[in-house]
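Still learning. Any example?
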Amino acid sequence: MDPLEEAKHIKNIAVLSKEATIEYEELIKENEQVKNENARLLQDKHEALQKVKEFHRVSQLVVEEVSAMQNHLEIEKSCRENAEVLATKLNKDNKNLKRISAMYMAQLGKEVVPLDLTSDEDSDVNTSSDKESRCVSEECQKQISELRDKLVSILEEKKELSFQLENLKSHWEDMNEKLQEEKERNTALTTKAVEQNEVLSKYNKVSALAVEEYEDMEQSLELEKDLRNKAESFAHEMLVEQKKLKRQSQFLMEKIVPSEQLLEALREVVVLTGTIENERIRHKQEMDDKEEQLKNLPMKKEMIALLKRLDLLEEDKKELELKCKISEQRGNDLKHTIDELQKQIHLAANPQPPPPPPPPPLPPPSTTTSNPLKNLMALVYKRQQASRSYNVSGTEKDSSNTLGGSLEDLKQQAVDEMMERIKKGVNLRKVKHTDRPPVFMRKSQESAVQELKGMLKSSKAGTLTTVKEVTEENELERILRVRKASTENNVNHGSSRGTMGMMSQSMPTLNTGNEFIRKGFNRTHLKRELSKNANPKTPLPNSGPSQEEGDDCSSLNNLQDEI
């Protein structure tokens, strides 16, 4: 955008903001005027209500007084009517009596005159009484007329008061209508003021954005001016230098014939002109890039705001993931605690069998040095032979097959079987103190346990002298000696001694067993595997080789406890 257009835009925004503020002030003044008028109308309404209440009170008093006078008049009227009725009755009775008396006087004859006199007297008395009654009735009539006049005046006053009351009611209704109109006008003005406030807030926002945009434009203009000034100064310097070089070249061309220095100077001039042109192109490109950047500034601001929101959302996500991990960890802990409690309940419901009896005393140590790997291999083959049925022919075939096999197969088979036995564990049986195994089986078990203990002790001390002695022998002599010993043992001692032949057969594996020991067969791994794979469940007691296997397993468990 051009600076003139920006200035016009800013002026328009300023004019609009001024107009909005002026309209807002006018609306505030109108609102104050409406509030004052509303207060005045409320005061007039209050005064009119007080007047209406006063008129209502006076009219109530007048109505009460008129009702009392009407009651008095009705009472007097009823009394008068009763008196008139009584007077008419008395007149009728007097007339009847006069007729009767006249009839009797006519019958008597002589006594008519005095009776007439008496009748005259009576008539005089009656006339006097009638006059008195008439006088009394005239006074009453005067009072009645006065009361009638009063009643008429009171009724007129009542009518006037009713007219005034109706006028006041109509005036009150008009005032209520005006008040409602003023309220509606006030609500309309308040809504208008709210709308104007919203418009003003929008104008403020727009003006703030315009000010920010104006500041950004000013910064960009200053930057462009600086760049332009620098470019102009650089171009001016380059022009000055170019002119100098031209003058020098002309002077040199006039003075002397063109030499090598002159040619070099001309080349430099050409190079400098090329660099100047390149700089001018680069500067133009930079100016275009700056203009594009200035155009894309609002998009960048939106991008920055969105990136900030994205960072906040990522932080919230991390917090929620942390909470989820904590809750999962708590759930796992609760699961572990539940499993432990279930195990404790199971152990409480199913108690463990009693511990096995302590092992018998150790035999005296042998004079010859024991090889730990040899003892371990012997123990493994002994257990392998004990798990099978005690068949002499089967053992002889197995021994012949193993002797016929290669040495590598024997070594690998022994090591694999040993590791599988250690990993899988052994099914133990219940130990009874009464049932004791035979003496030779106990001795073989004790010797196996002692050999394993000696193996562990020798691995602690690091004594591997026997392995070194065995490696010094010739391989052929060793194989022949092993075969001879195995055949003699198989012929002489049968199946009970076949295991010893297998033990001697495993002697060729000692050469490579040394390498196995060097590679890291340590005590801690054996202990960990034994503790991991030990199975507390015991099978039912059987006869034969299973009993010997159970004794071996009990001795292994005792050895594990000692470790």
User: Anything to note?
Assistant: Residues 112-255 form the longest helix (144 residues). The chain has a mean pLDDT of 69. Residues 3-212 form one domain. DSSP finds 14 helices and no strands in the chain.
